[in-house]
Specification:
Layout lengths: L1 H14 L10 H36 L13 E8 L8 E10 L6 E9 L4 E5 L4 E4 L2 E9 L4 E10 L1 H5 L10 E5 L12 H8 L1 H31 L7 H8 L1 H4 L2 H11 L6 H8 L15 E5 L2 E5 L1 H27 L3 H9 L4 H29 L3 H6 L9 H11 L3 H25 L7
Antiparallel strand pairs: 1-2, 2-7, 3-6, 3-8, 4-7, 5-6, 9-10
């Protein structure tokens, strides 16, 4: 019993020992707030750069806005001296030509103000105008769309007016007015999205976009993987070949696209000359202008999307060097001892690649697939330069251009861009959730 009582103070002393505080203290909270405050300007700038254009696109997508609506309604004015006065005392006319810049938008409280040039004596002014000293003011009220008007101020001139070069330009006329700006008001509509989804062509374009993106991305990754595997081993001239493999990616897109157009030209192209000489085809093939080609395989006739497949081949050829660089860099960081052990155990090169190299490359392949998928899904210049979106190669990005600029419907183009954004965000979220991870050895 005495032993137990002797141990109790020790236990009590152990409970009374000072322990580190839980959570953060007042000083740490102040330092944290100060750090966030110092980072706030940078964060807000980055947020504005990233979110500004995105929010503007969402805003335009719910507006019935066209190219003509980018400039708010205004009254345009042109001032000229008429009558051709040559001597003092000759009659002359100050003529103001005004028109509404829009076809269907009214402008309210339109006012014109101008200062009469020196040496011009006014004899009469229009009914809507008043003259105070040398200041001309005209109240034009509300003007409708397509409105045009001419205001004439009659008078005589003296030598001071005649000695002045372009006297009407010395004091420029000022026109003011109030008009609704469709880009800044709070009238919204879902008509753009309804027009996009009700169009049967949209779903065809969506299918073509996925076809082009998946096969273009996969082709670039496979070519890059084989190129990296080929140039990973050491041999004479390897450095030169590595640099040569970068040519498609570093060359200007306009140059390589034009080269492909020349090579595959149905009349004078090298590829068609080889195809016809070798007897593969009876006549020249329009690779970029023919929508489909009938192929017989095992007694079945298959409609092969020729133009789209040719564009996909260009996409894979042009962008495989990026995959090649990343995969080659990852291969060079692998431990070679594992390969030596596998070779001693009798593993073939294919088995070494499948069971050793590929699991270690899954991480970089996943990142490359995600990046290339996003970039290819947003790709516009390649398709536009090669086919212009014709022959079954029209993708969503080409549709954005067609809606926004060819048809002058910016709202519908922005709506298609919103669809592209939603699809890519959904894909990226699912891919990052379920993508395979790199295995360590």
């Amino acid at each position: 019993m005495s032993d137990i009582s002797a141990k109790l103070p020790a236990a009590q002393d152990e409970d009374d020992r000072p322990r580190p505080p839980k959570g953060i203290g007042p000083m740490q909270r102040r330092e944290s707030r100060l750090a966030y405050l110092m980072l706030a300007p940078t964060f807000l700038i980055v947020l504005a750069i990233v979110m500004g254009p995105l929010l503007a696109n969402f805003w335009i997508s719910v507006k019935p806005v066209g190219l003509a609506d980018l400039r708010p309604p205004s009254v345009l004015i042109n001032e000229r001296v008429r009558g051709g006065p040559e001597n003092p005392g000759d009659a002359a006319t100050l003529e103001y030509r005004l028109r509404n810049s829009t076809q269907d938008k009214e402008i309210r409280a339109v006012m014109l103000e101008d200062r009469i040039p020196d040496g011009f004596s006014v004899t009469s002014v229009p009914e809507v105008c008043t003259l105070t000293d040398d200041l001309l003011s005209c109240d034009l009220g509300t003007v409708p769309g397509k409105w045009r008007e001419r205001l004439k101020v009659e008078g005589t001139v003296d030598q001071a007016f005649l000695d002045t070069e372009d006297p009407e330009d010395i004091h420029a006329a000022v026109v003011s007015g109030d008009a609704d700006n469709i880009l800044t008001n709070f009238d919204f509509t879902l008509e753009n999205f309804a027009r996009v989804f009700d169009n049967d062509e949209f779903w065809s374009v969506l299918r073509v976009t996925f076809y082009y993106t998946i096969f273009g991305t996969g082709g670039a990754l496979v070519m890059g993987l084989f190129a990296a595997q080929l140039l990973h081993t050491s041999f004479k001239g390897r450095g030169f070949l590595r640099g040569l493999f970068l040519f498609p990616y570093v060359s200007p897109v306009i140059a390589v696209a034009f080269t492909w157009l020349v090579l595959f030209d149905p009349f004078s192209g090298t590829v068609n000359a080889l195809v016809t000489k070798m007897g593969v085809a009876d006549q020249a093939i329009n690779f970029f202008g023919q929508r489909s080609l009938d192929l017989s395989l095992f007694g079945l006739t298959i409609e092969f999307p020729l133009a789209l497949s040719t564009v996909i081949a260009f996409e894979a050829w042009r962008y495989f060097p990026l995959s090649f660089l990343f995969i080659l860099a990852r291969m060079q960081s692998m431990n070679t001892d594992v390969y030596e052990a596998a070779e001693m155990d009798g593993a073939t090169p294919l088995q070494q690649f499948w069971y050793i190299s590929l699991p270690q490359l899954m991480g970089i392949l996943s990142v490359l697939f995600l990046l290339r998928f996003i970039w290819t899904f947003n790709k516009f210049d390649d398709i536009f330069l090669l086919t212009g979106g014709n022959a079954g190669t029209r993708t969503l990005t080409v549709d954005v251009y067609e809606q926004g600029f060819a048809l002058s419907n910016l709202g519908a183009g922005a709506a298609v861009a919103v669809v592209v954004f939603v699809v890519l965000v959904a894909f990226a979220t699912l891919f990052l959730t379920f993508s395979p991870k790199e295995e360590g050895l």
